[in-house]
UniProtKB/TrEMBL annotation:
PANTHER family: ADENOSYLMETHIONINE-8-AMINO-7-OXONONANOATE AMINOTRANSFERASE (PTHR42684). It comes from Kribbella amoyensis. It holds the Pfam family Aminotran_3. Its cofactor is pyridoxal 5'-phosphate. The gene is bioA. Homodimer. This is Adenosylmethionine-8-amino-7-oxononanoate aminotransferase.
């Protein structure tokens, strides 16, 4: 079978067998066959027996920060494979897990002292929410069984995280009635640069405080994505809002859970987005870029006070235990990824990317049908006035040598940090020209 036949065969078998994310089995979105990847580029079957290269402007959904086939990360995996690939974490431990936990405690805000490793970001949110509930039970507050969050958020696709995603404009409205009914405050006013005394921000804070006060006896924790709401709309908001949330949590005895799965490890310009506000959480979730995109791994960190309270409370343990918790391969590559990131002037690299995205996407703001163009750190977003034609927009950008995955009304990029200035310029031009073509 020639290459064209092999490609058609694989894609046909894929269509018959596989469900892709947020895709119909009977009317699936088009898929493309990846035949290789190197650096920041994917090699894709071109449908004519050959291949085309495209810059992965998604960093494979925001995690592949060091690119593909990175020799340092490759070697970390090979070295660990030669020792052992997996071992249960119940009753056993291993050096990569211990070292990674130490590293995370050193890097994250000082109050966070204890680490629970998870399979994925969504699971880390599950664990964080369970921990908050156990904490309140241990404090004798058994009626505190709900979470307070803000509209516009996204925290994952498993059941507990779905319940704190936006219930109206999110992706999980079909499950209304089956999910735990949480407490939702207003979405923070848009704009990273808003000051604390901005009238819209002051009004938002007042409404948020009212919502918290009305349900204070029921709320165990506040959970939010700090500074940038990701899959809910690539929506940046002011650090002052995060400080308000910390104040409200302290006033009513809620825990503050920060979901940094998308924003951690430099994406917004600080190592963790909460640093923009100088706010320390009680519980922190990290994932995605933790392993440089090589393997699925996430972590939930908490303060010593939270850990002691739960450990001394009913049950005497945090009631969770994934099979692949602290997988040695994942922990080893995570250590290498963190060292690789911090071993360079990563902030200068993020600033470089941010400047390049702002320059490259600026012309899109003048196009018909464009509502907004925004950049924060290594995140560039073009928001349209209406829904994106996903197949058409994807094709248009890909013809210009760039892979993106638009959603709702957004064409956006969260590129690998190892993109060159030329790569970033290509991404900006491709997105802008594709939007112009679609008008």
């Amino acid at each position: 079978m020639n290459e064209l036949g092999r490609t058609e065969d694989l894609l046909g078998r894929d269509t018959e067998l596989l469900w892709h994310p947020y895709s119909s089995l009977t009317a699936p979105s088009p898929t493309r066959l990846v035949t290789g990847a190197d650096g920041v580029r994917l090699q894709l079957a071109d449908g004519a027996g050959g291949t085309v290269e495209a810059i992965d402007a998604m960093a494979s959904w925001w995690c592949m920060i060091h690119g593909y086939r990175n020799p340092v990360l490759d070697q970390a995996l090979k070295d660990q494979v030669d020792r052992f690939s997996h071992v249960m974490f119940g009753g056993l431990t291993h050096e990569p897990a211990v070292r990674l936990a130490e590293r995370l405690v050193d890097l994250t805000p000082d109050p966070l002292r204890h680490v629970f490793f998870c399979d994925s970001g969504s699971v880390s949110v599950e664990v964080a929410m369970k921990l908050a509930l156990q904490y309140q039970v241990a404090r004798g507050r058994t009626g505190r069984t709900r979470m307070l969050t803000v509209r516009g958020g996204y925290h994952g696709d498993t059941f507990a995280p779905m319940s704190v995603c936006d219930p109206v404009n999110g992706m999980h409205s079909l499950f209304t009635g089956a999910l735990k009914e949480q407490v939702f405050g207003p979405q923070p006013p848009a704009g990273f640069d808003r000051a604390a005394d901005d009238p819209e921000l002051v009004a938002w804070a007042g409404e948020l405080r009212s919502v918290a006060a009305r349900s204070s006896d029921e709320i165990a924790a506040i959970i939010v994505e700090p500074i940038l709401q990701g899959a809910g709309g690539m929506y940046p908001y002011s650090p002052a809002c995060l400080r308000v949330l910390r104040e409200v949590a302290d006033e009513y005895g809620f825990l503050l859970i920060l979901d940094e799965i998308a924003t951690g490890f430099g994406r917004t310009g600080t190592l963790f987005a909460s640093e923009h506000a100088g706010v320390d959480p009680d519980i922190l979730c990290v994932g995605k870029a933790l392993t440089g995109g090589y393997l699925t791994l996430a972590a939930m960190l908490c303060t010593a006070e939270v850990a002691r309270t739960v450990s001394d409370g009913p049950g005497g343990a945090l009631m969770h235990g994934p099979t692949f918790m602290a997988n040695p391969l994942a922990c080893s590559v995570a250590l290498a990824s963190i060292d690789l990131l911090l071993g360079q002037d990563w902030q200068a690299e993020i600033d470089r990317i941010s400047t390049g995205l702002a320059t490259g996407l600026a012309p899109a703001a003048e196009l018909p049908g464009v509502k907004d163009v925004r950049v924060i750190g290594a995140v560039g977003v073009v928001q349209l006035a209406g829904p994106v034609d996903l197949p058409r927009m994807t094709d248009a950008v890909l013809r210009r040598g760039v892979w993106v995955r638009p959603f709702r009304d957004l064409v956006y990029t969260m590129p690998p940090y190892v993109c060159t200035d030329s790569d970033i310029a290509t991404i900006g031009t491709a997105i802008t020209e594709a939007i112009a073509e679609s008008n």
